[in-house]
Design goal:
Largest sheet: 6 strands, mixed
Shape: globular
Strand content: 15-25%
Number of strands: 19
Distance between the termini: 42 Å
Number of domains: 3
Strand order of the largest sheet: 4-5-16-8-19-6
CATH architecture of the largest domain: 4-Layer Sandwich
CATH topology of the largest domain: Double-stranded beta-helix
Length: 537
Amino acid sequence: MELSPYWLRDNCPCPDCRDPRNGQKLFQITDLPEGLAISASTEREEHLEVLWNDGHRSRYPLAWLTAPAEGDHRTEADKRLWAAADFASGIPEADWADYLADPAERAAVLRAVRRFGFAVLRTVPTEERQVLRVAETFGYVRRTNYGELFDVRVEPDPNNLAFTSVAIAPHTDNPYRDPVPTLQLLHCLENAAVGGDSGLVDGFRAADLLRTEAPDAFATLTRTPVPFGFRDRGAELRADRPLIDVDPLGRIREVRFNNRSIGTLRLPAAELDAFYAAYRRFAALTLRPELQLEFRLDPGDCLVFDNTRLLHARTAFEPGGTSQPPGGAGGGRRHLQGCYADLDSLASTLAVLERRVAVLDTLQDLFEGEGAGEYLGEAVSMAEHMLQAGVLAERAGAPDELVAAALLHDVGHFHGAVTGRELMTGTDNRHSHTGADWLAQWFGPEVTEPIRQHVAAKRYLCAVEPGYRESLSEASEYTLQVQGGPMTAEQAADFAQLPGSTEAVAVRRWDEQAKAADARTPDFAHFRPLLARLLAR
């Protein structure tokens, strides 16, 4: 494998080169010596170990060295371009309660926004300002001259066509801003109007078609800065950007399209002719029926969409002063509340959610895989034992953190060089510490410290509580000896003073009780929402 020395050293993952908490580099590129070279290298345990000619040592996972390049998920390369027929079986959607409760469901919604450009949340409470709470589930509200939110309804003195009842052609919002708000949310509070249906067009798909059908027109729109502007009594905004923006590799990255906001181009006549021919052709593409996805937002629906990719539209509607069923005489009210947010926050939230879902999947795999095996000579499997402990904590009304500690207290038997089997042959695997250290990647000390101390808690109880040792199972009595036996009086006094010792003792008691061969317990999925809540803190 041929590797660039400076690239390889610049990406050294060791704690001297990168902060282990956030991955930020701890050196400048100019700190690396001239003539940097590899003195020696070897592959060992799925890693490449490198000795550099300045004496530094690096270790790289082989899988990382061969991984494909990752982008920021903003260009067409990371999207699924679509036409209306692609959603014949339904659009990306989720119930609001499920979205809030299940990290996997929330990740699926955010992934749809990133991949398809939009998703709809159903049954969102029809309360004023609720749209802000939706945005805050994945990012931050972007305040503009319209405020932190805006009302889309007929206004007596509108400063924008959105606040009228006329039809609005496919467009992107706020093209006169730099940077433009990259996400928009529209929450339907009321929609009893005749008409007023919503529409979306994949601007990336339209731009891709233009590139295929008229490459010269596509090139014109990518290289011609367009003066977008807006002004009213309180604002005057301008941004000069092309209708279609591409990255340095020529990939479509952004579409700005809003006929109402285009100012006056000042170019030679021949360039203006070329621009307007390309502009008209692109506009005609966005109006092709096969590209227009039409649907109706009902009360409780919240549309989240990528404002740098999707063009949104609205049919005309018949305004009315009071709510009426669709088709009633005189029309009915239509009221949406909207706000802006940004894609980078959504992408960040999605990445964190995917990590959390991966953690839960890993734990579930342990319970359903290795966990089905024997539990240190007891009459239950490892998974049954831990699930019983979790249920006992739950029934006792323990806080979420302690339920999780009880549920996960023995995961250390699955990790590390020494397993539970070695413990039964006389080798202390320190599973309490191994498990706590592994879980500390994702859970706080309220979960991990009772796990870390639960073995010590058994030794403590055997020392201070008459009759406790006699209640131990035969296997637990054996492991007590391997793990050091009952504490001395001095050790027990020191343990009782430790922060969290009370919680560790509680986990220990549930641990010892959780060995009933005929107990009926829920499976791991029962505890996933609880663990997900803890991961989110």
